Amino acid sequence: MDAPEILTTASLRRTALVYVTVLLSVIGLAASAFAYLYAHNAATEFLDGQLRQIAFTTGVGVTAADAPAQADQDSEDRFAVNIWDAQGRLVHASLPSVNIPLQPQSGYAKAETAGEEWRVYTTGDSRQQVQVAQREVVRQEIAQTAALVAAAPVLIAIPLAWLVVGWAMNRVLARLNTLSTELAERSIGATAPIALDGIPAEVAPLARSMNSLIIRLHDAVEAQRRFVSAAAHELRTPLAGMQIQVENLSREARGAHEGATGALARGVRRASALVNKLLDLARLEDGGAVRDETVDINALVLEAVADHAALADHKQIDLEVNFASQAVCRGAPDEVCALLSSLIDNAVRYTPSCGRIDVSIGRGDGRFLVEVLNTGALLPKGAEARLFDRFFRAAPQESEGTGLGLSIARRVAERHGFELTVENRADGIAGVVAHLSIPAAREAGRGTGERR
Amino acid sequence: MRILLVEDDVMIGEGLIAALGAEGMSVDWVRDGAAAEVALHDTGFSIVLLDLALPGVEGLDLLKSTRRRGVDTPILIITARGAVDDRVSGLDLGADDYLIKPFEVRELTARMRALIRRRAGRATSTLTAGGVELDAETHELSHGDAKSVLSAREYGLMHALMERPGRILSRQQLEERIYGWGEEVESNAVDVLIHSVRRKFGKTVILNVRGAGWMLPKS
């Protein structure tokens, strides 16, 4: 099942190297084959001529042992010259150790003796028969040398080609690597097009279509932002008007009207809360990059708790906070604040009167763990999986919630790389626990961030 | 007290005139950028309520040009734009406060009063928060029907809490505010002070969050 993998991730470098190597090998093989054949033929023609020349100029002479030779002369190259007289007696043998019988026919022939192949030329007249022989291996050696000489440049060229092609490919691919790093690090809202200079011509169309995609993507993100901003204005303005009018109305309301204006005011407040939460969520979803500021988790938890302390006090809830000595992470403080606020808001909302809420910030393994434990009802069966769905509410409809708080919390957690879970308590007490695991800022005090 | 309201929405405009009128303020209402430009040359207003989205002009530009002319009337932005950037640029351009629609009239009037007071150099030396009023001159605290003059330490405690309503102050933060450098502080001193204030004004006057500290609710 490797085939698709290979197809989809074909390496340009490896492909180029394989093709170059195969091409050079074929050229090398062909060159040495031609060189071998040509050299063999030429050597045969030349040496056969020599054999014949020796045969008709020879007479009874000295043997090899008596003829001094250069030290480096190859003994294999030597000719064996034999002469027989009219009676068939061997009268001369230049190499007495070589014993090639007289060939029955004149002319060129092949003979084998002592396991070696010889090229033989035989001629003669009524007085004598002359036979000159030379080892076949001489011709093969000449041809092999020619083949080797022809192949040598190619043998050298192959590793050189690897080096040169590899280097050239690296140069080209390095630009592509920078390009892909640039792309990977881009935020979705970045508008600058990819720079085309230095990009290989073959890849330029790809980069150009990416640029047009970037522009379209940016336009879409911008349109979404404009819509959210316009929707914020268009929804909040009439709600603000209603809010003011309802307050004016309730100032003068008496008797039965008092209850009605109270209900109206609650309705307006609820619609406002819903609009605010929807806009928060829309802003989180528009894909912009998360700001990288120093976030003081203790301070934000304190702020979120303070915002809900009055309601908790009103419900006579026992609210306790345990801080870590120093808890700092990186992120957008307002988003993290919204996350923590929605966890504590949920706890206060769903804890019955005289219940208890424990908020704690713990530390361990390079992370901070914010826990919000409350007492009261358990989550209904199957609710845990749906808690983060928009508009899902685990509680009866009459409690005033928007059903968006945990969706916002989860979105913020996702954007920041926090881990967020909400589940029934495992310590035997009826209630719910929210765990938020936050990676600690790598170095304490890096930059000053925003002081709150 | 004369108020300039720059707001293009009719329902909000009419509603605010009625609501602020009931508080004894007289409201001049303009509904577009050009009229606002003219009205902002009049320096006789105690405070300006400025909507940012106006027909014909960008509210932030109006704010900038007004401040450039040296007009120092307190300006409170009331707007539907709630993004952090909008708020920051509004305050940077010289607005004194920023309120996002929809808001409760009570909060608007409280902030208006605070701005006017600040501009007047705290002519009235009364702090108000969470249904509690503290007179800085007489050290008199009133909460509901209860009214009593506080001791110096009690005053220090309540002043610290009322300066930042809605914010929790830890025991250490309170000790630092109440006691001077080098003063011996008993470990339960803050508890004793809180207990005595609560005895006079009821338990609900100061909220406690265990593990975190004490606070006064914002409203």
What features would you describe in this structure?
The complex is a heterodimer of chains A (452) and B (219). With 452 residues, chain A is an alpha+beta fold. Helices cover 51% and strands 17% of the residues of chain A. Chain A has nine helices and twelve strands. In chain A, helix 4 (204-252) runs antiparallel to helix 5 (256-285) and helix 5 runs parallel beside helix 9. By secondary structure, chain B is an alpha/beta fold. In chain B, 40% of the residues lie in helices and 22% in strands. Chain B has a five-stranded parallel β-sheet with strand order 2-1-3-6-7, sandwiched between helices. In chain B, strands 8-9-10-11 form a four-stranded antiparallel β-sheet, covered by helices on one side. Chain B has a two-stranded antiparallel ribbon with strand order 4-5. In chain B, helix 6 (152-163) packs across helix 7 (171-178). The longest helix of chain B is centred in the middle third of the chain and has 15 residues, at 105-119. The relative contact order of chain B is 0.09. The model of chain B has no long low-confidence stretch (mean pLDDT 86). The chains are: A alpha+beta (452), B alpha/beta (219). Chain A binds chain B through residues 229, 232-245, 247-248, 251, 268, 272, 276, 279, 283, 302-303, 305-307, 309-310, 312-313, 318-323, 334, 359, and chain B through 9-12, 15-16, 18-19, 22, 53, 78, 80-84, 100-106, 130, 166-168, 204, 207, 209-212, 215, 217-218.
